[in-house]
Amino acid sequence: MINMQNKKTPMRKQSPKEAIGNFDEVNFGYNFEEAITEASRCLNCKNHPCVDACPLHNNIPLINQLISDGKFSEAYKVSINNNPLSSICGRVCEQDSLCEKDCVRGLKIDNDPVAIGNLERFLGDYFAKYRKDEKIKCLKSTGKRVAIIGSGPAALSCAEVLAKNCVSVDIFEKNTKFGGLLRYGIPSFVLDRSVIDFKIKFLKENGVIFHANRPFSEKMTLKDLLEKNKFDAVFLANGANEPRKMGILNENCYGSYDSKTYLSLNNAHRFFMKIHCKEILTAKHVVVVGGGNVAIDVDRVAIRNGASDVHNLYRRSEKEMPVRREEYINAVNEGIIFDFLCNPIELKVDKGTNRIKGVVVQKMKLGELDSSGRCSPIPIKGSEFTVPCDLIVFALGASSDVNVTKLLPVDVIDKKGLILINQDTCKTSIPHVFAGGDNVLGPSFVVYAVDHGKKAAMSIMEDILK
Length: 466
Fold this sequence. Notes:
16 strands; about 475 residues; alpha/beta; FAD/NAD(P)-binding domain; five-stranded parallel β-sheet; 3 domains; Fumarate Reductase Iron-sulfur Protein, Chain B, domain 2; globular; 19 helices
């Protein structure tokens, strides 16, 4: 029976006062009763617009029907057919701008869409708790081997699809821990590390071999992998790791960080940070520049590190922010101060130490739509003012890892430093070499990296199993 309640079933969570005192997950997830209640709000409408709006085309109505019937295992099997990282995507995917945006329940005034992301998270967590001993059923090895560079969402999804089809997989990661963006870029209060660890453990138990501290380099090139090590194909899933800069005065002063460095130190290198980057933990007045999910993550990390105030500067309005609404609301509730229509134009530094002491900000107004589909920000002359700060973090996106692209033929790299592929197959122009994720798209949603990983796996199998 359809549940006609207008609003989503609320998810239990830490209070803001509790949340800013720890790095534990803020949201607790649904229990059985809450999941059934929410799933039964699905209308199972005729055209299923939510399925079309999902990059992975999950069979959302069927999944919801099975959950509402209490058939959680069956629902998980349907979900995992299209999304190998359901527990992860349920936490970090942009559902409110994808599947939930087109949900018919949410199109009516004063109605919320079905909480598709919360239900996806529920299924992934259910599997981890109650079905964790299940194995990938591979009857006979194909004898084929694939090397994957990187261990983020594109890599993990590709590895799982290949393993299910009896292809041997080796994952090479430049860092000491696996997970890529998921581990180094997303804070634990959004994505608990146990969720990442469970997926990696699952893949290891099903034959995927993980190699830490093994970067793609002059010592391990495509030629080495394909000819010397006899891999049948290579999938480049190294992410986008080269931070973008604004090019403003004093941008490289002490106390100025890019979001990649800042989040990596906080998420995975806190011991190093406590010794060598103490200003991160002692900063009381923090400014964050950017309007995406990464900026919100930085905001919320800074407040947990003990900042008295955190100002988020965004050059457009709240409406144009490309963020998960839930995380933005959490940030507001946790005390983050958002300064919209503001853009930094210069950093003020102490002349003796070259350490930041403030940021000069120019007010903006919105003009015509630009290529992003949003109103373009236009500077207002004479509107400058200064925000005092002792730490600033720029969350402006990134391009592909130059340590990888410099080892590839120039005709495979575009003007932005991203790898060129056939978008339908993830093939590069190099025989038996595929690529996907942020190294192709630039900083993007995790779900698109998962989609690339799946596409690459299918194309690899077509390539090597002829």
